[in-house]
Specification:
By secondary structure, this protein is an alpha+beta fold. It folds into 2 domains: 197 residues, no CATH class; 143 residues, Nucleotidyltransferase, domain 5, CATH 3.30.420. Helices cover 44% and strands 18% of the residues. The chain has 11 helices and 14 strands. Strands 2-6-7-1-5-4-3 form a 7-stranded antiparallel sheet. Strand 3 and strand 4 form a beta hairpin. Helix 1 crosses helix 2, helix 1 packs across helix 4 and helix 6 packs antiparallel against helix 7. The longest helix is centred in the C-terminal third of the chain and has 35 residues. The radius of gyration is 26 Å and the shape is globular.
């Protein structure tokens, strides 16, 4: 019997650019809108049920409504489709409906586990589109692969998707194509960004590793992330901070001011923004500027994370809370621009992919502690952000602040092993 996605030991995800036809774009939009509608209907029913249960007086109409909502939430797919008959149209993917309901339930599950992001909110309509479907395999399929499911590869440049049919795609890694007969496809996400580019994200599982394990280098490194330079490691190597957002900040501000003027002009002419050609033309220009910055930053972070993981058996970083740092308005823009959380996420999954070890440690006192003797700078001697170099008053050794912090981070990581 074939293993399910959860039973497979190795998992990976890949996102490819696709080029749909005009009809396929229409179907993507319809399914995206329907997915958002179903999610919001689930949220609406849950909210109604919560507030109705706050009514302590046993009013018949309230009790009947509670019973009705409870019954509908037991089988939401059928209940929503029965009330909103348009969801039974053949344009809609049935697995899209199931995934929208599953995502809502997952959001509640994460809230109960983490209690950070808050309860699920209504999804608003915007300039992006997204929905999820699943890859199903027939009963006669003995070995599920990337070529015999409801989501499958037709060849090296074409995908087959439910309802959408054949889609041309670009950029699937050769190592995935070479292992296509050993890989099973799971959840598939079809999306469009604010610029109008379409993508398909494939969740994949396999019984074999997606990448060969790297040879043992017997090298360990600690990395200190900061704003003065992007990264300093325990070997003293420094990577400069590229500051991609600051490079186009002036150009973006000018484009956004122009966008704001066009929005005011459209409202003055009693014209909807979606129908204003001038507004939409400028909105697209602003979206392209933002996308350019995001792509440059992502490319930079991929190169840095891959180099660190491939060249070291152990990588130790400090566990940074970017959300807390963003509360400092003097540093908020620089913290957002640098992409620390994205780098840590990349290091984490690439360590698993290449058979390396990645750890995060508490940043407490990593900057204030002497890596030679362990003396902690406290009280009046506590280092400020302006102190980039200092001498330990206990052992007299001279420190470069970031290099010393990286050495402390590596020592903390080794102590936890």
């Amino acid at each position: 019997m074939a293993k399910t996605m959860a039973q497979l030991p190795y998992h990976c995800g890949v996102k490819v650019r696709v080029f749909p036809s005009t009809e396929q774009k229409r179907l993507i939009k319809r399914n995206s809108d329907a997915s958002r509608f179903i999610y919001n209907q689930m949220n609406d029913m849950t909210n109604d049920l919560f507030w109705l249960k706050q009514v302590k007086i046993p009013i018949t109409i309230v009790l009947n409504r509670i019973a009705d909502l409870t019954e509908r939430l037991r089988n939401p797919s059928t209940a929503i489709s029965n009330i909103h008959g348009w969801l039974n149209h053949p344009d809609f993917d049935s697995l899209m409906k199931a995934n929208a309901i599953k995502n809502y339930k997952t959001a509640w599950k994460l809230f109960r586990q983490v209690h950070q992001a808050g309860t699920p909110k209504f999804h608003k309509r915007g300039y992006t589109q997204t929905y999820q479907t699943s890859c199903l395999y027939g009963a006669k399929v003995a070995v599920p692969t990337m070529r015999n499911g409801s989501v499958r590869l037709n060849d090296t440049h074409h995908l087959q998707l439910p309802k959408l049919g054949r889609l041309r795609f670009k950029g699937l890694p050769s190592k995935i194509l070479d292992q296509a007969d050993d890989i099973r496809i799971g959840t598939t996400t079809i999306s469009m960004d604010a610029v109008g580019h379409y993508f398909v994200s494939l969740q994949m599982g396999s019984g074999h590793p997606f990448a060969a394990k790297q040879r043992v280098t017997k090298s360990k490194v600690g990395i200190d992330l900061n704003l003065d330079n992007f990264l300093t490691d325990s070997n003293g190597q420094v990577i400069a901070n590229p500051r991609y957002y600051r490079m186009i900040k002036g150009k973006l501000a000018k484009a956004q001011r122009k966008l704001s003027r066009r929005a005011r002009r459209a409202k003055k002419n009693q014209q909807r923004l979606s129908e204003s050609k001038n507004y939409q033309k400028q909105r697209l220009l602003v979206a392209k500027l933002r996308l350019k910055v995001a792509n440059k930053r992502k490319n930079f972070l991929h190169h840095v994370s891959t180099t660190l993981i491939k060249n070291h058996d152990l990588v130790v970083a400090e566990e940074l809370r970017s959300k807390n740092m963003l509360r400092n308005h003097a540093l908020a823009m620089s913290v957002s621009d640098v992409g620390w959380r994205t780098l840590l996420a990349m290091l984490s999954y690439k360590a698993g992919l290449y058979g390396r070890k990645f750890l995060t440690v508490s940043p407490r006192n990593t900057t204030q502690t002497c890596s030679r003797c362990g003396h902690v700078m406290a009280g009046k001697n506590k280092l400020t952000l302006a102190d980039r170099k200092w001498t330990c008053p206990s052992c007299g050794i001279f420190h470069i602040r970031d290099h010393n912090a990286a050495q402390n981070i590596l020592a903390k990581g080794l102590a936890t092993l």
